[in-house]
Design goal:
Number of helices: 2
Mean pLDDT: 89
Low-confidence stretches: 1-10, 16-51
Largest sheet: 24 strands, mixed
Structural class: mainly beta
Number of strands: 38
Distance between the termini: 22 Å
Oligomer: single chain
């Protein structure tokens, strides 16, 4: 595409620990022209078909572990307690002491019952279960389990799952896992290799990470790294909070990972990206180096910001609440995303690589420092997006940092973007949509509502180097190139 470069602020790469590029703020003038509110389409839509319908999702739950019923009477049981011994039998009356010993002993059909107390990681899962007989790690009834430790270059993860399958990690607390070493990436739960059919649910991950005081630090809460093909991953109903992430992400799915869901989690108060779906970083040793066919549904994602993060000292706010960077076939629905640097971003950081087939529906995105929704590569030398649908979202009071991010930021290398049935309400800055110059037929608008912050507010749309004070004029210019 031939794009007109303008001076407004564009998002720096954020996550993966690999970008140090700067970006400049906008000098766009304000306008005192009258407010415009549009409730009907003013331009025709493009003819391409969206990737999926609004009633569908990408995740195939036919092998989902949380749908399975297990006969407790036929399962094996191992008991762990802080008063136990690793030479004990592991029965209820003779518990073992460490989680690693339990992991060594647990085979298909085993439930590891953990008594209240604090336990040390790392824990390496050594065996796999089956669909009918998964291995389960869970607390005893009403027990509070805290897993902590001291990370090292050899042991960076509190729970480590590599090349294993049919494992459930449920109801555990991970905390106080810190490093000052830039060579170490502390992670509560780490999955890699060719693992599959895993359920990570109802865990509480908080107050851990990197204390490296430069741009070399990294940490994660939950990380799925598909160095080989990984599939059928469920990350549901967890709390991931107060993490010091450096240049990385709280919950990340990266590399050759297919068929996943990240549903109903609380991801709050972290100092970088909340939920990230990544491709094209060289993670996979296969031809499919990108996460795909997954759902992100019903999460609460708030207060994720690089403010105060030494890995981004002096850089503009860029941490996405929910971010798809190189992923394909991702369904993002019914999430509450508030008070982040950027609400929901669909982009690609790698040159000539595309994020494709992403459906963003019925999310509430509010109070972002920079932009509410952001789509496209953040500069011409990065990747782009194709077949993206933004539908029925409520996007309000973003751009609180007054950096001209607006309620929707349309960046570089956008192919086939549908924007329909959304309600956009301005912040005091007045900026609605900020867009690069777009080629004809690449973007469609339909039935969007544009509302002012208050009755005295003026609204501003920007396309390339042109400002508009009505949605119809902006949309006609964007789609039909009728730019008056």
């Amino acid at each position: 595409m031939s794009l007109l470069i303008l001076a407004f602020f564009t998002l720096p790469a954020c996550g993966g620990g690999d970008s140090v590029e700067d970006s400049s703020a906008s000098n766009l003038p304000a306008t005192s022209e009258p407010t415009t509110v549009s409730n009907k389409p003013s331009v025709p839509t493009t003819s391409y078909e969206p990737p999926i319908s609004s009633s569908q999702a990408f995740y195939d739950n036919s092998l989902a572990l949380d749908n399975s019923q297990f006969d407790n009477s036929t399962r094996q049981h191992i008991y762990v307690a802080t008063t136990g011994s690793d030479t004990a039998s592991g029965s209820a009356s003779s518990p073992i002491l460490t989680l690693q010993r339990a992991a060594d002993l647990a085979t298909a059909g085993t439930t590891v019952h953990i008594a209240a107390g604090s336990y040390k990681g790392p824990v390496y899962i050594k065996n796999s279960g089956t669909l009918a007989k998964p291995i389960i790690f869970q607390p005893m009834q009403a027990a509070k389990i805290i897993i902590t430790g001291t990370p090292s270059e050899a042991d960076e993860h509190l729970f480590h799952i590599e090349n294993q399958a049919y494992v459930i990690i449920r109801g555990l607390e991970f905390t106080n896992f810190w490093t000052n070493n830039e060579q170490i990436t502390p992670t509560a739960i780490y999955v890699t290799g060719s693992s599959h059919n895993l359920l990570i649910e109802n865990n509480y991950i908080h107050d851990l990470g990197t204390r490296v005081n430069n741009d070399k630090g990294n940490a994660h809460g939950i990380a799925i790294y598909g160095t080989q093909p990984i599939k059928d991953i469920q990350i549901n109903n967890n709390r991931v909070e107060n993490l010091s992430l450096g240049r990385s992400e709280a919950v990340v799915i990266n590399g050759d990972v297919t068929n996943f869901e990240v549903n109903h989690n609380q991801v709050n108060n972290n100092n970088n990206i909340g939920i990230d779906i990544i491709g094209f970083e060289g993670t996979a040793k296969t031809d499919n180096d990108y996460a795909r066919r997954g759902d992100i549904i019903g999460n609460t994602v708030t207060h994720n910001s690089i403010s105060g993060n030494p890995g981004y000292e002096g850089e503009d706010p860029s941490a996405g609440g929910i971010y798809v960077d190189g992923g394909k076939q991702v369904f993002i629905q019914n999430n509450t995303v508030a008070n982040n640097d950027v609400g929901i971003e669909v982009a690609s950081e790698n040159f000539q690589k595309l994020t494709e087939d992403v459906w963003v529906e019925s999310n509430t995105v509010t109070n972002s420092t920079y932009a509410g929704l952001a789509v496209g590569g953040y500069d011409e030398q990065r990747g782009g997006v194709r077949q993206i649908t933004l539908v029925n979202n409520t996007v309000a009071n973003n751009d609180l940092g007054k950096q001209q991010g607006g309620q929707l930021l349309m960046q570089f290398n956008i192919q086939k973007l549908a924007i329909k049935d959304n309600t956009f309400t301005s912040s005091p800055s007045g900026y609605m949509i900020i867009a690069n110059q777009l080629d004809r037929g690449e973007v469609s608008f339909q039935n969007n509502r544009y509302l002012p912050h208050n009755s005295h507010s003026s609204l501003i749309w920007v396309l390339g180097n042109k400002e508009f004070n009505s949605s119809s004029a902006f949309e006609n210019c964007a789609v039909l190139q009728q730019c008056k």
